[in-house]
Automatic annotation (TrEMBL):
PROSITE patterns xref list: ABC_TRANSPORTER_2 (PS50893)
Pfam families named in the record: ABC_tran
A single MF term (Gene Ontology): ATP hydrolysis activity
Domain (ABC transporter): residue spans on this chain: 2-212
Keyword check for Heme: no
Protein name stated in the entry: ABC transporter
Lineage: Bacteria, Pseudomonadati, Pseudomonadota, Betaproteobacteria, Burkholderiales
Taxonomic superkingdom: Bacteria
Presence of keyword Magnesium: no
Keywords from the named record: ATP-binding, Cell membrane, Membrane, Nucleotide-binding, Transport
InterPro entries hit by this protein: AAA+_ATPase (IPR003593), ABC_SmlMolc_Importer (IPR050093), ABC_transporter-like_ATP-bd (IPR003439), P-loop_NTPase (IPR027417)
């Protein structure tokens, strides 16, 4: 379970978000929408522990029954997928995926096998040694999502993840993302401008409901 309790974010005298409470169950995707400048990125920044010092925040982040808002980002167990994938350009596709595997997963052979299995699952068998720059947009998008999931996060944040893809790819990649999240039972928060991004039957929350 992914839970935000009573989050308030202010900037001096102005209140950006007031009293945000949200619970997301494993495998569910809650979508947060809101106009440009309404605070969606600021919310995500708080969740990953990277709030700009211009803001002040109070509130709690709970994951799997543990309070985590005081933990550094690498210890929070929050994964994020941005609109621009941020694959490391100097690593191969397989190395990008291996990099995400938790350090506790020991053994070079087992790690390699996990990466190869992931590549097969996303239709990229034989791509281990490819330079990420040579991938198509859809291939990059799939690798980026899997890299976020291989880290075994307790919650996933999706920041406008479909906006850079053209219409056909976007529809395909949406389906792929929703399927992976349901399969891996990750509680997910999706931030988007586009009503078409909302998963079928998913909950949609307007950020303005937590604004004065
Ligand atoms: N570092 C900063 N210092 C001061 N104000 C900031 C800073 N970053 C963002 N803001 C302001 O905080 C408000 C919320 O910005 P934020 O980027 O969270 O909005 P958003 O909903 O993500 O917008 P968009 O959809 O355009 O990305 C805006 O009024 C913005 O100008």
């Amino acid at each position: 379970m992914f839970e935000i309790r009573n989050l308030t974010i202010t900037q001096g005298q102005s209140v950006l978000i007031a009293g945000l409470d949200l619970q997301v169950k494993p495998g569910d995707i809650a979508t947060v929408t809101g106009a440009s400048g309404s605070g969606k990125s600021t919310l995500l920044n708080w969740l990953v522990g990277d709030l700009d010092p211009a803001f002040q925040a109070s509130g709690e982040l709970w994951l799997d029954g543990q309070r985590r808002d005081h933990l550094p980002v690498e210890a929070r167990g929050v994964g994020i997928l941005f609109q621009d994938d941020l694959l490391f350009p100097h690593l191969s596709v397989g190395q990008n995926l291996a990099f995400a595997l938790p350090a506790a997963r020991k053994g070079a052979a087992a790690r390699r096998a996990r990466v190869e299995q992931t590549l097969r699952e996303i239709g990229l068998d034989g791509f281990h040694d490819r330079d990420p720059a040579t991938l198509s947009g859809g291939q990059r998008a799939r690798v980026s999502l899997m890299r976020a999931l291989l880290a075994e996060p307790c919650a996933l944040l999706l920041d406008e993840p479909f906006s850079r893809l053209d219409a056909e790819l976007r529809a395909q990649f949406r389906g792929f993302v929703f399927e992976q999240i349901a399969r891996q039972r990750i509680p997910t928060l999706l931030v988007t401008h586009d009503p078409d991004d909302v998963p079928p039957g998913g909950r949609v929350l307007d950020i303005h409901q937590w604004q004065a």
